[in-house]
Amino acid sequence: MSVYQLGKNSSTTEVTNISTNGFWLLSGDKELFLPFSKFPWFRQSSIDEITCVEELRKGHYYWEKLDIDLTDEIINNPDNFPLVAS
Hints:
It is a single chain. By secondary structure, the chain is mostly beta strands. It has 2 helices and 6 strands, in the order E-E-E-H-E-E-E-H. The protein is 12% helix and 36% strand. The radius of gyration is 15 Å and the shape is globular.
């Protein structure tokens, strides 16, 4: 019987910058900008809430403290996904 431990995920997801206009999300080799005008749920959030993000699957991000999940498709094309919550 062979027992082994899977390697640590080397692809990290993190918020690299927050400004008055939005924030930058770095995941692997891509950087995405989430403007508060398109993602208003983050506007009044704390730095701790915004930076507590994980990539559940490739291109699917989850902010546990805010109960928000977004995909690359939504982030890159927010106008295709009308806001349903505020």
